[in-house]
Amino acid sequence: MFTSEQVAQFSEEGFVLYPHFLSDGDLGRFHSSIQEVTAGSTLAEHDEMRMEMEPQQEPGGELVRRLYEPCTHYEAFRAFSESDSLLSFVEQLFGPDLFFHYSKINMKPPGIGSPVEWHQDLSYYPLTNRDSVSILFYLDDTTIENGCLQVIPRKHTAPLLDHSTQGFFRGKVTTKVDESQAVPLEGAAGTAIFMNAMTPHSSITNTSKQPRRTLILSYRAADAFPVYTGEMTHLTEQHSRLVRGGLAAKARFSMNEFPVPLYESRIASLYDLQERSRQEDAQA
Ligand SMILES: O=C(O)CCC(=O)C(=O)O
């Protein structure tokens, strides 16, 4: 369980890092499941509903960028996402009534792994309040060199940073980010990072020879309801489900207004949207 200092850190800083959250057994099960699910997939031939490949490789290349929704599709991950031990941590942050929201595995393979630009998760799926957490579980030893998460503390209670240009959502912060405030979060395999969905974060390309796989799960308080169901945004709701406690009879509002993500066109993922946005920046 979290100590009271850790709960206070989450509330004040917008994140808390918890070493050795996963056991060696958890890591072994997750690594085997990933191996099984990705075996035989190539850039030219893979299941687009279940995974996204690194685009900068030969058609026969096997480097996977992301696995979509492991906690819905694969038993080892689903069981973990609904486990009492994990949900008890989330309950310490948001109370007894909890929704699972979504999951993914970002693979960041050695030498190529795509960067993730500065963004706040709630910009993708506005909710009636900020009681939403993204939990990153490092599945490999993770350092600055292989692209650890970096966060900007104490921004999760401020208004959302701008993620748009010309009225359209770009999936990344579009104003200047003061990177001198960034905190890199290195950790051994098994480390968990609990991050408020309003905390700005990013990670750089993996230029090292070491993999950097990260399992990401998102949960929210049952009374944090989606406020916008436009194209793309409603997709983040597809797998949401009550995992602890009861349904909320009232939506709780903690903000008077919040920007909604208006998409210029359909996108495959955050990576795809951020890449398009980088190309537009380069042309400007
Ligand atoms: O993989 C990472 O380093 C960060 C991932 C992330 O922020 C996201 O997928 O929304």
Question: What features would you describe in this structure?
Answer:
There is one protein chain. 21% of the residues lie in helices and 22% in strands. The chain is an alpha+beta fold. The strands form three sheets. Strands 1, 2, 3, 4, 6, 11, 13 and 14 form an eight-stranded antiparallel β-sheet that branches. It has a four-stranded antiparallel β-sheet with strand order 5-12-7-10. Strands 8-9 form a two-stranded antiparallel ribbon. Bound molecules: 2-oxoglutaric acid (AKG). 2-oxoglutaric acid binds at residues 106, 116, 121, 149, 201, 203, 214, 216, 270.
Structural class: alpha+beta
The major β-sheet equals: 8 strands, antiparallel
How many separate domains? 1
Provide the helix percentage: 10-25%
Please trace the helix and strand order, writing H or E for each element.
HEHEEHHHEEEEEEEEEEEH
Estimate the global geometry from the Cα principal axes: globular
Annotation, overall tally of beta strands: 14
Hetero ligands: 2-oxoglutaric acid
Q: Which architecture would the CATH scheme give at its second level?
A: Sandwich
CATH superfamily label: q2cbj1_9rhob like domain
Return the average pLDDT rounded to an integer: 96
Tell me the distance between the termini: 49 Å
Instruction: Please give the count of helices.
Output: 6
Low-confidence stretches: none
What is the radius of gyration? 18 Å
For this structure, the CATH topology is Jelly Rolls
By CATH reckoning, the class would read Mainly Beta
Strand content: 15-25%
